[in-house]
Amino acid sequence: MAEVQGWQRRGHCSWRFLALCPLAAVSALLLFLLCVAYWRYVSLGSIAAAAAMPLLIYFLWAPRRAPPIIVNVGTLAIALLVIYKHDANFQRLVEGTEPRFSFSKKKETD
CB burial class (10 A; 0-12, 13-18, 19+) of residue 95? Predict the structure, then answer.
């Protein structure tokens, strides 16, 4: 059986958020892309989008209506889990050792 790598192993919840509240999911994606474009750290973009998601869901759910409490609690729990799972990345960001995102591939030397 082929080994599953990267985001496939973790299972993105962004698709679930897209079904739950499309405007909040698109806003979080925009925040992620802005963070990655400006600072070039994918982990920072992921942490920022996850941290913003509970507020985005709450404020963008529906005009003048709050989402059900289970949605608030579930979104907060998922956001905390994502931030917790990015702990090693956060430590590398603080230490300055986190690799930056780049479109160019580095060539290996033999």
Answer: exposed
Q: Write the burial class of residue 37 (CB in 10 Å: 0-12 exposed, 13-18 middle, 19+ buried).
A: exposed
pLDDT tens per residue across span 93-108? 999 999 999 888 765 5
What is the pTM (predicted TM-score) of this model? 0.80
Range of the domain at 71: 15-95
In a domain, 9, yes or no: no
The total of structural domains in the chain comes to 1
Tell me what pLDDT residue 42 has: 93
Alpha carbon distance 91, 101 (integer Å): 17
Q: Is there a domain that residue 107 lies in?
A: no
* Non-local CB neighbours of 89 within 8 Å, separated by 6+ positions: 43, 46, 47, 98
Specify if 102 maps to a domain.
Answer: no
| In a domain? residue 40 | yes
